[in-house]
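User: Need the bound-state model for magnesium ion:
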Amino acid sequence: MTGPGGGAPPAEATSEAAPAPGGGRRGAGPRSIASRLMENRWAGLAGLAVALLAPFVNASPYALSVMTSAAIFVMLAAGLNIVVGYCGLLDLGYIAFFAVGAYTSGVLSTRLGLPLVATLPAVLVVTVIAGLVIGAPTLRLRSDYLAIVTLGFGEIIRVTATNLDVTGGPSGIYGIPGLTEGPVSFYYLTVLVVAVAVIGAARLGRSRLGRAWRFVREDEDAAEAMGVHTYKVKMAAYVVGAIWGGLAGVLFAAHLSAVSPGSFTFLQSALVLMAVVLGGMGSIRGVVVGAVIVSLLPELLRDLADYRYVAFGVLLIIVMLVRPQGLWPARPKEVAK
Amino acid sequence: MNAPLLSVEGLRLAFGGVVAIDGLTFAVGEAEIVSVIGPNGAGKTSAFNCVTGFYRPTAGSVRLRGRDITGLRPSAVAALGVARTFQNLRLFGEMSVLDNVRAGTHLRIRQNVLDALLHTPRYRRSERESTEQAHHWLDFAGLRGDRYGPARALPYGEQRRVEIARALARRPDLLLLDEPAAGLNHTEKAEMLDLIRRIREQGVAIVLIEHDMGLVMDVSQRVVVLNFGREIADGPPDEVRRDPQVVEAYLGRDADEAEIEQARASVAGGRDGGA
Amino acid sequence: MSQLVWNGLFVGSFYALVALGYSMVYGIIKLLNFAHGDLYMLGAFVGFAVLGAAGGVSAAMALPVLLLVLVLTMGVTGLAGVVLERVAYRRLRGAPRLSLLITAVGASFALEYGMRAGAGADPRVYPVRLSGTTLEVLGARVTLQQLTLVAVAVILMIGLNLLVNRSREGRAMRAVALDPRAAALMGIDVDAIISRTFFLGSALAGAAGVMAGAHYGKIDFMMGFLIGLKAFTAAVIGGIGNIPGTMLGGLLLGLLESFGTFWLGGEWRDVFAFGVLILFLTVRPTGLLGERVTERV
Ligand SMILES: Nc1ncnc2c1ncn2[C@@H]1O[C@H](COP(=O)(O)OP(=O)(O)OP(=O)(O)O)[C@@H](O)[C@H]1O
Ligand SMILES: [Mg+2]
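Assistant: Bound-state model below.
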């Protein structure tokens, strides 16, 4: 367990000591272990510690609910970061996968009387299918097409949920069973799941597949020339992102014990995107921080409700113009091993 | 059995009305260096794009050891042992130099999603291999600069080396280099020439697009000349250099004696410089 | 039957007007301007404000007043489009496409919620309605106001087509769309041409906004969201970047929706339109009139 921000376990760092033929040419020397820890593990561990200790500061039902929502939001941001940050594909309807996950588990648990955990396999299958259906036609095309098709997809899922009887129509589904007894244990379960999800996303990002995602983001043609099947790689990013969103949806359903179409508007998709962009696309630490800020800020700025979203929109433009790498960017400089 | 490594036959490529390549036929044997030359816009890069699957030719075929690869997607062509560089450097700019070259090992290393999530021994091993190979090919290409910083931070000449190292990490049988010496200074050009020779010594066949005649004449076994999409010559360098059609293509009908003299001199000069 | 056709053509002419701006901007800088639908919304509100300031409008004067307001609004939204391009997009023209798209989303968001902050979240009732005289044409019930609106849309589209195909301005636009660098070398002021393209596209969207307000009677800050999606679908059907194709796409989408609604029920209209979009992207991503281009490597 390395916590959100998931640093590389030390084993990896030492085992990757490559022989250095022509050693002197190597450029920058290895950096001190201390500075490395500061950047990786400590940031993640500190984040996890804050999350674990927060209930000791304030465990009112309201505070717990807000913190649980924030944790779920972090998971969403980590998932969208795979698609937007690593792979460079703009998904404007990401909340649809969240909805698919929440509705699938909600419908199955209330109609069939299943415990929520038992719905997970179905959630996985349905979100993967949803990812494939949207990704297959659009990932072949220019990336802008994906952006707008996902925007439409987000809307369509919401409209469909509103129109169907099985999803409870406009008022949605009530009485979804929880995953644990009581809000405190659910909060800790959520933090655990989200931490694993964040570490998982970070590990994928550093793997062969994760590098392929970034090759695609940087230059699709060059990636193809290196033998990277860009279509499959984009599809993988999209499907993995869908799974993260779908699982976050299950947590959401368990948290509120109810789901309705109103929770899955474009506004929500835009907020998750905001978290990713603000924190720093492709930087898992930045994205986690961005998600916490974006999800907690509205709680602090309740009075400014109307101007809040205007500010978000303007902020998106400003970030892109002034600091496109986000608040806490991914290091292009890797640790000398 | 006796099929050449690469054979291009009757290649034709049209964009709407513009015919970029009009009947190109040539072959490349194992570990051979063939140069493709021609004035700007002659269709050299387009020919590369047809061979590597980026463009789908209007007619004609591309074969690799006798196997038809026409119309395959670029990654499939790459998987069969063809690597290339691009005319205007296509590095993954924001990624580290090392990661750039690791791209070449993408098809060679074996790890799946579970390995990556659980950091299994297989994951560690494959990552280590990938890193070692990347270092090896960077050494081979003679990179002096920082390997851990973003690729875009390197000077131009160094970026060229990284791009070649990346292609070599693919361990290709055939390497297509699109103007690798463009924009390099005199010393760097000599080093590039040396690098190209060393690549060939590894048993890799090379197709080279290059405007520097000295370099071309020095390093190639054969030269193919394109002009307005048409192939106007194919033969050993000495023969091609004397071909009147080639001289005319390069200098135009109106070239006066002085210009021709100058061109000859520059060709000879490049030869001396390179040797 | 003919009623369905007429309804389809009527809605389709709105889609076409909005889609044109989308398509022109895409044609010239290859950007999907997500804020385009919001310029349509802005147009509706500008028209609303102007009409409100003018006080009550008698039924007899409704049409001339509305046309005047239309022209005014087109000027305002056109300028808004120019400012948008200037402030948010121009500096990012060479940046990664993702940055530009995100900026466009930010602009859309700011416009929507800016309008909500300014005008409130509740729908506003348009202060002018055109008279509802009904005619029978080939078995379809057609109101006079529908005819008027379609006529205005057709005139605007013909005007745009003339402008793009016949004028110097239009030639320059087509040149920039084809190859901005070559156009710049030929002495064309690329920035100015892009500004004008934004002006034209945004003005058309604004016009459509006013017309929608006058027709439906109600406007709200999110009204541009769905129409933006529909306009994109229309542009894809016809061939994005292609002006006649986009007009055709708009009408076709209107017709498809009209029949789709008839068969499936109104609540599935948007899902149906989206299905059409996915189908087109799968089968013919270049659209009906768009041509296939090989991207340079
Ligand atoms: N994707 C494309 N779409 C349209 N025309 C193209 C495309 N790619 C190349 N062309 C055209 O094909 C012709 C040949 O171009 P190509 O790039 O192959 O020439 P080249 O020999 O590599 O020239 P240079 O020495 O300048 O690199 C040119 O007229 C070019 O404009
Ligand atoms: Mg070329």
